[in-house]
Amino acid sequence: MTPRHARTALATLALACVATLGHAQQGKLKVGLMLPFSGTYTALGAAIENGFKLRVEEQGGKLGGREIEYVRVDDESDPAKATDNVNKLIKRDNVDVIVGTVHSGVAMAMAKAAKESGTVLIVPNAGADAVTGPMCAPNIFRSSFSNWQPAYAMGEVAAKQGKKKAITITWKYAAGDESVGGFREGFEKNGGQVVKQLNVPFPNVEFQALLTEIAAAKPDAVYAFFAGGGAVKFVKDYAAAGLNKTIPLYGPGFLTDGTLDAQGDAAQGMLTTLHYADGLGTPRDNAFRTAYAKAYKLQPDVYAVQGYDAAQMLAIGLAAVKGDISKKAEFASAIEKAKIDSPRGPFSISKSHNPVQDIYLRKVEGKENKMVSIAVKNLADPARGCKL
Ligand code: PHB
């Protein structure tokens, strides 16, 4: 080969390399969806996936110029399997982003793995206070709520309605404990008192003995944290015991969101607090609801909104780095500065990466959690223990 030929060959090789690199950068972005696709939270996982994919489809299947590829893992809402499941996504599948999950115990294991590996994690439900508290990290974001947020608002509302003594009842795990803690804080600050805390193991739905205990104690109100299949059963059992006629049942909106078809008469008139409601009537929410109903032949709920907004947050971060998610600081900074145009109403992200958002008071009417008022405006989680 003459020197000139050698130079040409080298140049061609160099060009080929650049082309390959460029191609890799524009290759598919792998999103690991780690959600419950079985068990009491199955419907919640499905709604989150639907919401996320709806937003991606609205963007032509691409975010930040990159086509999206999904890897799905059923986490079974089982904390004991969580570390293995999340490490499969990070180490075996080499995902670029993880989106998950519903259950707070599983989410804490995911946050730990994400913090260690630096993989971007967007939590589309689980409220574990620790995720945006002591475990907060530059690469961890939440599109949903902290367990404290809707619970604190419900405590204020119940006290302001003149309720003095309340009993709480929940599944015994992080989300239930923190929800009850938030309710107690809001309730007791405003003159109420939590006189008893009742618990059942997750995801057990044998409520009879505890309902008998509530009937005997006759508190002014009951505050319950349950969701999905468990919420359906609890609200129906509460009404079947006749308690809904004498002791108002309050809760964070999970108690009646996505569950009203199954709860029917048992849920009518219930008041709950949440960062989403039916009947908001804004153009943004109307457009979202129409698109969701068209795509899935289903009405959306709070979980669908949280999935949709997880995709919106990812889109904002990826647009800022033109699809190159290795630019972690720029990716995070774009989301931190954004106003996310959510169906729930626009929200921003706190320093600890949790939504700062309005909490609505809702009332069950027929198949809807109708918006009554804004219970607390622009509520930020206290983010206790987050050093960012
Ligand atoms: C949670 O475990 O954090 C959790 C699960 C279901 C909900 C809300 C919170 O609806």
What is this structure, in a nutshell?
With 388 residues, this protein is α/β, with parallel strands linked by helices. Helix content is 43%, strand content 21%.
How would you sum up this structure, described in words?
The structure is a single chain. By secondary structure, the protein is α/β, with parallel strands linked by helices. It has two domains: 25-145 and 280-345, Rossmann fold (3-Layer(aba) Sandwich); 148-274, 3-Layer(aba) Sandwich (Rossmann fold). Helix content is 43%, strand content 21%. Helix 3 (79-92) packs parallel to helix 4 (104-117) and helix 11 packs across helix 12. The radius of gyration is 23 Å and the shape is globular. It starts with a helix and ends in a 9-residue tail after the last strand. 52% of the residues are buried. It binds P-hydroxybenzoic acid. Residues 102-104, 125-128, 147, 175, 227, 254 line the site of P-hydroxybenzoic acid (PHB).
The number of E-state strands comes to 14
What CATH architecture label of the largest domain applies?
3-Layer(aba) Sandwich
Q: Write out the distinct hetero groups bound to the structure.
A: P-hydroxybenzoic acid
Number of helical elements = 12
Amount of helix: 40-55%
Radius of gyration: 23 Å
The major β-sheet equals:
8 strands, mixed
Distance between the termini: 59 Å
Low-pLDDT windows of residues: 13-24
CATH level-3 fold name of the largest domain: Rossmann fold
Briefly note the structural class of the backbone. alpha/beta
CATH class value of the largest domain? Alpha Beta
CATH superfamily of the largest domain: Response regulator
Mean pLDDT: 95
What is the overall shape?
globular
Strand portion = 15-25%
The sequence of SSEs as H and E is HEHEEHEHEEHEHEHEHEHEHHHEEE
Number of domains: 2
